Request: fold
Amino acid sequence: MTDGRTSGSARAFELLEPLVLAATVRVHAPPGGYGTAGAGPTWGSGFFIAPGWVLTCAHVVGEGGGATVRIAGREVGISFSSGRRTGTVAGRVECVMPERLEERRPRRGALWDLPDLALVRVLAPVSHSCVWLTDRSRPRFDEVAYFGCTEELGIPEITGRTTRLRGTAGNGAAIRLGDDDEIDPGMSGGPVVDLARGEVVGVLKARRHAGGGGLAVSVVQLRTLPMAARGQVGLYRRVMQAHDLYHYDQHLSDLDNRRTWTDVHGELPPEEGDPYAGRGRLTPGERTTLCGLLAELPPPGSSETVRALVEAARGEEPDPQPPAPLSWRDGLGLLHDPPGGADEAAAMLRYATDVSVADYREPPTPGADEELWEWVRATAERLWRPLRRELGERHERGLAERERRRRATAGRAAHGPAPRSGGLPAGASALLEVWAHGWEDLYDWRVSVLAGPARPGRVTPVDSGVRATLAGLPQALRAPLAEAFRRCDTHEAAAPLEVAVSPELFGLPVDEWTVTGGVPLGVQRPVLLRHGAGAGEHPADREGAEGSARWARVQAGPLQDERADCIGGRPRTPAAEWLSGLPDNTVPVHCRAADQEPTLGSLHAVRDAGYGVAVTRRPPPGAGGSCAPFHRGLREELAEAGRGEVLPLRLQELRGRAYGADPDAYWAAGAGLVWEDPARPLPHDEPLQGDL
Reply:
């Protein structure tokens, strides 16, 4: 223990150390069989975050593997000691983060890409302890303890030391550790514990070769676990549900008199100057119970659902920068320390009330939502009467609104015509904007979340960058796009990606990029082209409502295609009068490179004529190929589609068929859909045009 530690943190270390040691493990080569002693050198450390699940660093489980050996699926050895239980078992690496570590790994001795995390599933039923993970989206810069495996005397041993957090790195993905104590080899992958709050905030990653200190990965990066293209349940939600139910069960059980994490949270020294001390915060027991009750419910429909409930409970929009909240528990983490001295406990109870009357993806366990509400009402008894009355009214309004939505949905299905399916989801979408950096052959970019028709024009930033080459854009945008998709995707559908660029960039092969899962974006989700900022007014804004009429007519169908930039295979420039005179249900089609004339001028002319839906194409490699198969295939597709609203998903399906080697879909290679939906307006701010 360091001499400079305060008496409060010294007491916290004393209370927390047994709990953390019981959950921290040594990672090494896989044993010869279950129950055999762990032999061989230590690769690093890890810790149990849920029954059967160990969190560690990707570079720890990648030890000993060649550059071409996949990390996911590897077996490793896990040695642990929990009270009287000691053993070694085999574990299998279920996934690594980021996924690109499977494709490209750093040279030996170099830092691995953030977040550098791995989840290991234990392959034998063993009894062990689990840590308490923070729900806060950002760490507090206080004293921490870190734990890991050392071999100072030639014997592997889990030890703990203390230091302070000194800031963040990697856009918040990593936490800087001070140099108050030494980080030994073998401690990588071990937990970093906030001593003031008794929760694990990081995973030890690296130490400095000179000057002391090191880096830890924020456990919030667990939210970046790979997800399927549809749905947000996935591995993250399953593991965090198991984590919360473990601590909930431990808290309720009276079969063991050993201290639990909840017990120790109640014994930690109070924080000096905490404005929310006392009844302003939930007690440790209340917090554990709330997390357990939330874990019993079906997951939220989307990240935006969680953020909307947090905003309603907190009174302001939550911080947009941390990774997207994917579970009800993550929403609690956005409610700590509300603004203006507002009561934290009250904000969490408002949030829990709203969750109890939310629309769930699937029916909850009978009585689970009522049990949550009964707990909220009982907990509010210790607070004050105005809050109790407010929560009761909030619950009644929520029940009435939920019932109204259910009746409306049932009524449409039973008494009215069934809504036509196949259109885009009405929720949020990911927005990618790319524009030239001045006159250089470099490009700036911005990734945002576009709220959709429910909140027209509302944009939440995700990330931005400058001076990227076209070839470097896929790599630069991989992580920001993944985060945007986590915020937008729902259990029912993958959110669209809207690519807002000037027409000369309509040939950017965004639909062929891979972000997660090794599958091209255009196969995973609808990818739509938009005229970027500065390209002129929206087609629906033209005088005489010309654009709005065309948009509505195309959505209803039937559809009529018209070659805009060629005639009989020969290039042509369409006249403005000719474009304006075409029927309102026309879809202009372009078959040539968007950055070359006459196609570039045609794309501008089509927009000026008020067309909100158009088709463009990246010609296949090698000049001279006939465009006839493309036009023939597209005409058949438009006739079969019948109406414009289904085109985004039908194009996605075509890309999937081509990706699956269906020869009948090869004609659609490189096809792009310009989709200027007036209900989804783009931001009006103009991008900067480079340095002066």
Notes: Confidence is low (pLDDT under 50) at residues 412-420, 688-692. The CA atoms of residues 173 and 218 lie 6 Å apart. Residues 385-415 form the longest helix (31 residues). The chain has 17 helices and 23 strands.
